[in-house]
């Protein structure tokens, strides 16, 4: 299977090429440069591998949640290429991608959290089972103090920038349940590509026009009143 993957939902921009089990990736923490770099990186990966776009079997995309602009960019790029090539699209949760990249020697229960700004975090809880990730709860956007683990017993590991948000409030609140926390972890297209390849082989790819971004919330900025209320609560 040959698959091209885009993940641009956070400050990290990454593109990966999956070639029958081998993965090649371009990755960088490049805020505000995603639109400039994503497509050229994809073209570089294809050229280096000697693969034409027409040889791709599918396109994969991190569907969010994350930064609105980044999520929209990844969806637009992936849909555009998939539609042009008449190939299926494999959407994967960015939180799932983040969780799948967690330390293999850590606990099998993983809380992935991305800084959502405006005093909130995007969170998703997962458990590793037989080499696959199972979602333990729905994805949510919440204030750090409102986050609850869906399974209270047992050890967990936490990954993602949500653990550094609000002066590390989420990490502090869940310190008793977390064996390890990596607040610098970011989702990577290489991980996305492997997840998408498995999903594609399981028949989970969909027509490109059916894929929609996962924003989890509609408002992109606080009103002045909301900003004042948030500052007053701190």
TrEMBL record:
The record's annotation in InterPro entries points to:
ATPase_NBD, Gcp-like_dom, T6A_TsaB
GO annotation terms (biological process): tRNA threonylcarbamoyladenosine modification
What keywords were assigned to this record? Cytoplasm, tRNA processing
Q: What is its main location?
A: cytoplasm
Which ranges carry the Gcp-like domain? 27-221
This protein's GO cellular component annotations are: cytosol
The superkingdom of the source organism is Bacteria
Pfam families, from UniProt?
Answer: TsaD
Q: Where in the cell is it found?
A: Cytoplasm
Q: Which NCBIfam families does the entry mention?
A: T6A_YeaZ
Q: Family, per the entry?
A: Belongs to the KAE1 / TsaD family. TsaB subfamily.
Q: What is this protein called?
A: tRNA threonylcarbamoyladenosine biosynthesis protein TsaB
Organism of origin = Pseudoxanthomonas taiwanensis J19
